[in-house]
Amino acid sequence: MKLYDSTLAPNPRRVRIFMAEKGVDYENIQIDIIKGDNLNESFLSINPRGLLPTLVLDDGTVIDETVAICRYIEEMHPEPALLGTDAISKATIEARQRHMEFDGLLAAADAFRNSFPGFSSRGLAGNAGSVEAIPALAERGKNAMVRFYASLDAALSNSAFVAGEAFSIADITALCTIDFAAGAARVPIPDQCSNVKRWHADVSSRPSAEA
Ligand SMILES: N[C@@H](CCC(=O)N[C@@H](CS)C(=O)NCC(=O)O)C(=O)O
């Protein structure tokens, strides 16, 4: 299978880490989002939404959306389980994963997209046409990230990982969110968030974090 990927972007990294945790091999095809190669005819013929990650199976099936790709991989390679093992852990991980996405990743994306000069007329990701960036959204995204860090810090004060005592997709989403926020969006982990720092050092030391 082929993964259409960009090492510059947080969502494709979520899939790379997920694959690395499972030890799954695939062909990696880099698409340069900054140059707009995701909007070229050749990529749009694979994914008309122009978004990464996109997985193409050997039989030609195209799967987009990070979590859909991860669900497919989990079905094909159940161990180690990253989406939960029973009704309660599956529900808890799903909820925490969505908290990381909606409260963190979307905030970091707003902060970056609406302040990066190269995206001044690419205010929305993918094949959305020309959409002006809104500087106020960058500010709102930064403030939301600060709230996100505080809430994650409180949650991590009594658990090893984002969704409890086992590493899961929720940790992958949080790690990719934070590394993207600290780098591209320039909103690093606040000094007082010692639980987030402890957790970040821990998950960053896993070999999969190199992916
Ligand atoms: N909900 C989608 C979001 C995908 C997405 O926004 N991907 C970004 C990279 S992180 C992208 O392809 N951006 C293309 C662009 O900025 O034009 C998913 O999780 O797969």
Structure description:
This protein is of the alpha+beta class and 211 residues long. The chain has two domains: 2-76, 3-Layer(aba) Sandwich (Glutaredoxin); 87-210, Glutathione S-transferase Yfyf (Class Pi), Chain A, domain 2, CATH 1.20.1050.10. Helices cover 48% and strands 7% of the residues. It has seven helices and four strands. The chain starts with a strand and ends in a 7-residue tail after the last helix. The mean pLDDT is 98.
Quick synopsis:
With 211 residues, the protein is α+β, with helices and mostly antiparallel strands. The chain has seven helices and four strands; from the N terminus they run βαβαββααααα.
Q: How would you summarize the topology of this molecule?
A:
Blueprint: E1 2-5, H1 10-22, E2 27-30, H2 41-44, E3 54-56, E4 62-64, H3 66-76, H4 87-113, H5 135-155, H6 169-182, H7 194-204
Parallel strand pairs: 1-2
Antiparallel strand pairs: 1-3, 3-4
Helix pairs in contact: 1-3, 1-6, 4-5, 4-6
The chain binds glutathione.
Glutathione binds next to helix 1.
